[in-house]
Amino acid sequence: MKTVAVVGAGVIGLSWARLFVEHGLTVRITDPRADLAEVVPDGVQIASTVAEAVRDADFVQENGPENLEFKKTLFAELVREAPQHALLLSSSSAIPSTAFTEGIDGSRVLIGHPFNPPHVIPLVEVVPGQQTSEESVTRAVEFYRSLGRTPVVERKEIPGFVGNRLQAALSREAAYLVEQGVVTPADLDAVVTNSLGLRWATVGPFLGAHLGGGPGGYRHLATHIGKSMRGLELGTPSQDPERLIEAVEDAYGSSTYSALAETRDRKQLAVLTALEEN
Ligand SMILES: NC(=O)c1ccc[n+]([C@@H]2O[C@H](COP(=O)([O-])OP(=O)(O)OC[C@H]3O[C@@H](n4cnc5c(N)ncnc54)[C@H](O)[C@@H]3O)[C@@H](O)[C@H]2O)c1
After folding, report:
1. Residue 231 confidence (pLDDT) above 90
2. In the chain, is it the N or the C terminus that has fewer CB atoms within a 10 Å radius of its CB?
3. Ligand 1 geometric centre to CA of 111 (Å)
4. pLDDT in tens, 147-203
5. What is the pLDDT of residues 14-73, one digit of tens each?
6. Quick one: signal sequence residues (predicted)?
7. Three-class DSSP category at 84
8. Sequence-distant (≥ 6) Cβ neighbours of residue 36 within 8 angstroms
9. Considering only the top CATH level, what class is 163-276?
């Protein structure tokens, strides 16, 4: 893999482009946005059309709008325009690739779903569709690994895949707790960063629970504290997010996006370095 095409240069596409170029790959990016030249990372080439971006690509990472019709049209074009050997990956957060490869050759199309920002966060969920070949899965996994990412292959398509389904469960209760006036958005964030976030950077929910049970392990936890946890009735937030949007803007709106993003990246990189050293 030497040449990568990045289609869509929003939040995710720009971050992928940065990761690819930092690993010495030739990167061509395309996006109709008027300010594209001002936002592309140094060393990334701009292509004026999708066809031009993918013409000699070995790997395509798609990051356009999260919209089924958009992805159907775009992937039909990618299958037509990219070289036969090129892998075609979508960053989609929730749409399985089987849904947008109906009627086209989907053997080299699959999901490569990152967590924002992909130049920092290691996970890539690799999700084959019904037509995806095993060879495409293996090549995608090898490619992401060569970039220092941690690909996890998921063997059954489900909307939202694994990471976003887990995130949605937590986000739903977080929204409910803020709407009910139990905590402010900043206090809820403090609860997470000072407990679950720290824990989950080192042990996942299952190993965490196994340790939470002491020497009796997961069996002890499941049959002891687990009983009261299973009995908790979780809330359902309102369908109108407006009050929540205002509360989050009150908490963080006075800082710029770039200042908040820089602090996040610096702290997350420090955590990754600490994990590598331990
Ligand atoms: N934001 C996240 O946290 C996140 C995380 C993981 C995956 N994703 C997924 O990544 C994809 C992109 O999300 P985003 O948050 O970067 O969105 P975004 O709105 O920031 O960027 C989308 C970009 O696609 C561009 N675009 C529109 N039509 C295009 C075309 N024909 N050709 C090329 N580019 C075109 C837009 O101009 C825009 O810059 C989505 O599928 C999303 O689900 C997002």
Report:
1. no
2. C
3. 14
4. 999 999 999 999 999 999 999 999 999 999 999 999 999 999 999 999 999 999 999
5. 999 999 999 999 999 999 999 999 999 999 999 999 999 999 999 999 999 999 999 999
6. none
7. coil
8. 9, 29, 46
9. mainly alpha
Integer Cα distance of 154 and 135 in angstroms:
15
What is the structure's pLDDT at 228? 87
Q: Is 265 in the pocket of ligand 1 (CB under 6 A)?
A: no
pLDDT at 147: 98
Active site annotation includes 125? yes
- The more confident residue out of 224 and 74 is 74
Q: Which protein residue has the closest C-alpha to ligand 1 atom 32?
A: 31
Backbone angles phi, psi at 158, to 5 degrees: -150, 135
User: With 0-12 CB in 10 A as exposed, 13-18 as middle and 19+ as buried, what is 21?
Assistant: buried
The answer to whether residue 3 scores a pLDDT higher than 90 is: yes
Closest alpha carbon to 115 in 91, 133, 139, 136: 91
What is the architecture, at CATH level 2, of domain 3-153? Answer: 3-Layer(aba) Sandwich (3.40)
174 Cα: distance to centroid of ligand 1 (angstroms) = 25
Q: How is the chain split into domains, by residue range?
A: 3-153, 163-276
Distance from C-alpha of 2 to C-alpha of 109, rounded to nearest angstrom? 19
Distance (angstroms) between ligand 1 centre and the Cα of 14 equals 9
Using CA positions, which residue lies closest to atom 3 of ligand 1? 116
Burial class (CB within 10 angstroms; exposed 0-12, middle 13-18, buried 19+) of 91: buried
Distances in Å between the Cα of 186 and the Cα atoms of 46, 134, 178, 194, 258 are 39, 44, 10, 12, 19
